[in-house]
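Incident review: delayed structure delivery

Summary: a single-chain prediction request sat in the queue longer than the usual turnaround. Root cause was a stuck worker, restarted by the on-call engineer. No data loss occurred. The affected request and its eventual output are reproduced below so the record is complete for anyone auditing the incident later.

Affected input:
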Amino acid sequence: MQIERSTLDFLQDLKKNNDREWFHASRNRYEAAKNNVLETASELLVAINRFDSSMGYPDLRRCMFRIARDTRFSADKSPYKTNLGVVFAPDGRVHSPLSRFYMHIEPGASFVSCGVYLPEPETLRSIREAIDDEWETFRAILDRKAFKTNLGDLSREDRVLKRVPTGFDKDSPAAEYLKLTSFYAFKDLDDDTVCSPGYVETAAGLFRIMQPLNEFLNRAILNG
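Output delivered after worker restart:
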């Protein structure tokens, strides 16, 4: 299973015509794109369960982000997102507080990722404590050859503190990770890869590399 070119074409056209009138006139194209992503995600979920049975089989229709944007507090009043994304979390929630896998489909900007984005303060504290207390275990996950080669490191695209947060030793070997406010790794995928017959295999392979990170973060969250 793969993402169809027609799905990327729809999202590209939506980017150029981001208004309600165009969207409603193109509703059939949207439904086709949505179903294509969900069908691909369903096949990917099967592959994930082969190496992480804790995932189970949540209803992916509830794990897909809505395409309508919440514009109430945004200067950008465009009514629609120009991407389609699906969360893979054991609790089957699109806004799960757990670490999770994620597939993002967007022309020229698709990716897969794993981890926690801007967790709530209590969860953030639990993750930082686990990293500090189990530094050798955490470092070993990030130092694995497959992780380094395919993912590099955790993302630092989001806000990073200038100093180690209060309550932690500023000289901790984990200091640079304690400064993070999000904990995730990701891999960009070009359109040819996303639309190739091997997309599910590629995405599942990357998720398998990310799985020890996912397990570590969820242990920290659930035991925190």
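Verification: The chain has a mean pLDDT of 96.
Action items: add queue-age alerting; document worker restart procedure.
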